[in-house]
Specification:
By secondary structure, this protein is mostly helical. Helices cover 78% and strands 0% of the residues. Helix 2 runs parallel beside helix 4, helix 8 crosses helix 10 and helix 27 packs across helix 29.
Length: 833
Amino acid sequence: MEKYAPMKEFVTVFQEYSKTKSEKTLNGPLLKCLQVLSVTSDLTIFDPGSGVSTEFFISLHQLVSSLDAQSGALWCAVSLLQRACQSPAARAELVHTFRFAPVLSRLLGAQLICDKKLSVLNLLQELTYGVRISWQEAHLRDLIPALVQLVDGSEKEVVGLALGVLVNLCYKNLPAVYTLLRCVDIRQFLRVVLKVRSGHRNVQVQVCKLLIVLDSITGEIPDILNFVTVTFSTLYDAFKANNVFLMRHTVDFFKDVQSNKHYHQMLYKYENYVADTERLLGLADQASSDECAEALFEFLDCLVSLRLPGMEALHRPLVASALGRPWSCAGALQLVCSVAAETRRRSLARGSQCPGDLRLCEDVGRQLEGGLDRLLTFFHTSGDQDLLGDAAAQTRLVALVQLLQEMCRSQALRQRIMASVNVQTLRKVFAPLLGADSAAEDCRSPDLVALYVHALDFVSGLAAHDSGWMSCYSDLLGRRSVQAVLATALYSGPLDVRMKVLALTSTVGFSAERLSLLARSLSDLDPLVLIPAGRGKPAAAPREGGGGAGPFDMRPLLSLAQEQRLDGLLAQFKELAEKNQIQDIMTSSVMELYEYKLAAMEHSERVLLSSLEAANEHATQMQHRVAQLAAEISRHHQLLYGSQQCVEGLRAEKAALQERLQQSQDVADKTQCKLIEEFKNRKAVVNELNNTIEDLRKAFALKENELQSAKMAIESLHSKENDMKLQYSSLESSHKDVMLKYADLIKLKGKLEERISKRERIIQDRDSEIAETRKQNDALKTEVANLNMINKMHEKSIHEKESEVQRLSTQLSDLERLRTVIFDLTSGQKKFE
């Protein structure tokens, strides 16, 4: 399904609803579209830059303006806006261009349950963050008192959100501050705010913000040291609670305080930066979301840029922690770049006078060298991503290019980078700009323009050391699309981007021809295209035909009787003043005159308020119209740019075709000359062939005579042929007899072959039996040999035993004789006794 299909369906259904105002349409297909969009997983559909999203938000604004607080579609639209606010680019457009805050502020005046009130305040906090109010707007008169009442209430969850919305409205917006001063006693209000300061951490942050906002009004300098303490503790708790909103707001406000000249100096009085930073740094590896890690590293980058004493001891762990993060976090890359730049600055500024700075610079350089392979791998994979429409990928790649630029200041790292990064990899980054279909895409968003400028600056740095990169740099600068991006950066880019563009014009590759091309691109740009929708100041013209009063409303302030009464009082006062009898004027008459004056002022105030509301509504409509026209102009500009590219391509193709045509014409002329010469040669050959034909005709006549004689010979041969046919028939009959005998012989042969095959099978069986018998015979022979050997051994053993028996028999006979002798001797002695 198409990416913007749900938005297109919503716009179509809303147009039908706006014509009929049917509750069935509202609670049916329109509500279904809102529910589908409020749970979408693709937040890029809410990003500005496409005409579909512009029409969608304008239709949504009209829908929200027409619904009451009891409508379910309204709260579904609130959920949808909360979902859209998760996209930073969409949130900026919702704040500055489509202005949903005035429409939603009226909901605070209704009787809402706590959950709905929290939903509205959460959304208003998002839609008022960073808002710029340059004149008194009608919704402030009701919104700010409602917020003050909520701050003074007893609901703790509501107090922090209401205070946050109030601070967003008053920060750098004097009309909102003046409205706040008119509706409350500021001293008493600050006392109320300070009472709730000990509550939730978010309340403490908002109180610090409000004190800094009102310091020029109240004359009291806020406690900056307490603000810094609250900032560290808030970031610690918000990080552990995974509260991205609180972290983002705290970091952004700390950056604003840091940019203030007066508060900037007071920030250096805080003494626990190192300990608190170490405490925060211990949480960096525990980040459960990239957004929390992004805010944390952004805050650490602010601390590095402050150049606080003692912070150099944390540079190594800061780099190690940032390099250990996944490269989906652009803040980590920016932090590494800031630390590398700071250590290099310190080593160059103090040099050999401080060996510690040199060692620190070397250590950071070794850390960067160890993480260079991961950085280069990430750079190669980033070039393959679809950068169009992906603001996060653009921001990450900008941070990576800036880090690689900083690393190139080291000769050893620069050699490795130049060996690993090739021209083709970098061209992938410029592919959306250089592609043939670039006219169909928006390649001039601020993030993408910044990316291209930083990438060109990176290429210019490499071009100073390698001729291949110089040719790539020169080729890129020669592209008209690249020059158009540089022109856009000079018109509407931030300060650092403009400085880089101006620095690029002084490089070697930026020749006079390139400067002329840049000037032509600047003159071709339409300034209206470059004015962001919602950033201008539309005129507060009154609405025609209804509702509000214009600045020249001719309705009388007083009735005729009141005017006559007022004229009589004024004449009486004038007469008494001429008679010097002012003291005789009755107090009731003065009070009556004062009441007339109050009535006239109240009427004038009502007229002015209605005129202001009409002007606000008209300004919002004009902003919506400007957004539509900006999207349409941007689309036409891209189409025109694409058409120009096509025309240039066609011109180049035409020139190439003309050159090919001229070459073909030259080849054709040469071929024609060859063909004319060949025709002459062939004509001579034809003449020779004609002469040959005449000779052949004469030879043919001779051959014809020979043919007649040959025919007569053929007739004689035919008679011989008949005789041969008779002989052939007799031979054919004898052949049949031979074939019959041959068939009998084949059958006999088959039988003999069958008998032979049987004999062969019998012979094979006999051969196998003989082989088996031979194997058995060999086995028996082996066994007989073994038995003979055993027999010989046994015979030898028997001989040995027989000799031993013989020996023992001899011994036995000897012993027997000895025994006999002994017996005889003993028997003889007995006889003698």
